[in-house]
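sorry for the late reply, my laptop died twice this morning and i had to redo everyting from scratch. anyway the thing you sent over, i finally got around to it. pasting the sequence first so we're on the same page, its 464 residues, then the predicted structure underneath. double check i copied it right bc i was rushing
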Amino acid sequence: MAQIPSDFLARLAAIVGAQNVLSDPADRWPYGYDNSRRHALPDTVAFAATHEQVRDVVRLCNHAAVPIVARGRGTGTTGATVPIHGGLVLSLERMDRILSVDPANRVIVVEPGVTNQQVQAAAAQHGFFWPPDPTSAAFCTVGGNLAYNSAGPRAVKYGTTRDNTLGLRAVTGAGEEIRTGVYTTKGVVGYDLTRLLIGSEGTLAVITEATLKLTPLPEAVLTLQAVYESIRSAANAVSRIMAQPVTPYTLEFMDSTAIEMIRGYSKAELPTGAGAMLMIEVDGPAGYLEHALDAIRRAAEGPGLMSIRAARTREEAARLWETRKALSPALRNIAPKKINEDVVVPVSNIPALIEGLEGLAREFGITIVNFGHAGNGNIHVNLLIDPNDQAQLHAAERCLDRVFDLVLQLKGTLSGEHGVGLEKRDFIAREIDPVTLDLMRRIKREFDPKNILNPDKKLPLEQP
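ok and here's the structure:
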């Protein structure tokens, strides 16, 4: 645990108000974990309500050399918000104001505690949406989306959080107030610190305000479900779809293990012996959609196609999506524990990735379920294990080690949107060379000279 100066709590209470500081262990306990199931008890928890409070709290922690972990709703899966050194957890969930909506310039300005769904609702009133749409959109905060560069299915067409954020207001680890980026869609003055902060997992600065780029809502969306005999035939279809001019709105993938797993949890009819399934959506002006759907359908057709179905109504689309939505509850019921990784490979290498994963599943005797965002090669690899079986846990660790090697051999990256946190921290040196890592550590020291912001996350620990 951190060494907390005797007057620290009193000074903290003076900044945010005594009622916004938690000191009882039972009250602090829920703020010690995230969705990774890791846990560490913080020494104290504080709720900030304004940018000025965040600034003053960071300055206090910098002066006292107290570690500080900024946190939203804790939906992350990599342990990035677990306070492994104790110290202060600074919750930003009460900074939940939408500061302005500017339809004329396609901009919305929000605080970090606003949920993704609240942003979508506010934007929709003016005919817009914000493209990032993680699965936890109803609960996760914009601050968390920014910290992890979380994206979701729509990234295949509209890009990630980095691509849809214009500027930020933040406080560095030294307590300095900064503004990054622009209010316009173009701007090259200075270095792009906005994109640097997005995805940094709170290790460089605490974000207190975000200027987000909005996109007009499409007139209509059409849904297509395609089922294939094999992984390779589905992956080849993905390559064909992504090579033609019509970019899909979403392009989701499920392997044969996932399909078999959900048969008892979904009413959707799927061919027996299906090797893989694609869920495809196209969006745009209503008069254009039939042409777009035909183009996608032609690209999806090919060797190994077992069935292809288009939804003409919302009800039909919902029935097609039942298959995909049934997967998460099926995984929770079938597997007492799962290791969930979100690796990314070039689209053309998806077949080699899935075939390699199938080989590793056989070699280590572990069930591996694969699904995810096929349009950009972002595959969620789920190792299903029994946490009470020590031999299986050990096998899973060795298997995961080989999974990461496989991904890098295929010119991929170890995380697409879940982040690094603690779960992947010790593997990062396999992907990033020593010179580049050293530069990143120097950037960290420049932003956070006393190493108080989420210490020992994101980058591998330096060896003596």
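The radius of gyration is 23 Å.
thats about all i looked at so far, will dig more tmrw
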